[in-house]
Amino acid sequence: MLCLVSSFLLASILKICTGVGDWCYQAQVNCNSTCKGPDIWYKVHKDCNSHRQSPINIVTKSSRPDTRLTPLVFTGYQKAFRAVLRNDGHSVKVTLPHGSSVSGGNLQGIYNAVQFHFHWGEKGGPGSEHTLDGEQYPMELHIVHMRNDFSSLDEAIKDPSGVAVLGFFYEESKSPNRKYDAFIHALKAMENDRTATTNSEISLHNLILSEANMTQYFRYDGSLTTPTCSEAVIWTVFEHPIPLGRDQLLAFSSLKYSDGMPMVKTFRPVQPRRGRPVYRSCSSSSVAVGSLAPLLVSVSAALGLSQLN
Predict the structure, then answer these.
(1) Tens digit of pLDDT for each residue in 41-73?
(2) Residue 38 near residue 22 (C-beta atoms within 8 A)
(3) Where do the structural domains in the chain lie, given as residue ranges?
(4) Which of 90, 117, 142, 145 is catalytic?
(5) What would the CATH number be for the domain defined by 17-272?
(6) pTM of the prediction?
């Protein structure tokens, strides 16, 4: 009888604590010693210990202004589609139909949108992968693109500039973001399922910032933030966050890993920058202020005023 009880308990523990695949996030490591967390991902894929890894902490004052980082050009982002959300065991991912792309902003070519996915914390807590001046936002959206001379993402990640990822932070707002209603509705339907489809069409344009809020961004060379950690990504991380209501943020924490545990803290810790430069765009507002500064100083001197601070 004791053996039967012991076997039952062991089976229950294994059911609860079985890891997902050969790698997992830190939130799962405490439950399963055989699950390889972020600090030992390199044992699964050696590139995870290379020198151009992502995410990183972006330090604003250390970033270098670059006039070549002009506003990006979005093509097909307004095209509506019925999104199929899939819980892939590590996040919620949407594979994109053909027809959307990004170019400009010193990207060397046109990059076709392939998929988007999210990284989040626990119950609206810190969960973004990149941090900005040490601040970790509640969530981060990654829209993954591959250069249009490649036929597959597997092929693109073999090239140092084969992939372009757009990263967007989220912040908690007092009211819900109605543009996300269809997406959040489908997300809630996934609590006990692996897939769900939006009940109405969405577009990438509605999920991201307005064009006026996308002129300020950071650029650096990095990697995928999950194994294989391939160092093939040109990163564009936007400074302004997307607003989401608290209940909308909480909807992501209701998802589950394949082992039944809450899918929370789905982010890789920041990686060493190792001397890589991080560039920042010169927004129209900052350029305008900068161009007026010499004129203001001259006027000040002519009027006998003290030097402007």
Answers:
(1) 999 999 999 999 999 999 999 999 999 999 999
(2) no
(3) 17-272
(4) 90
(5) 3.10.200.10
(6) 0.86
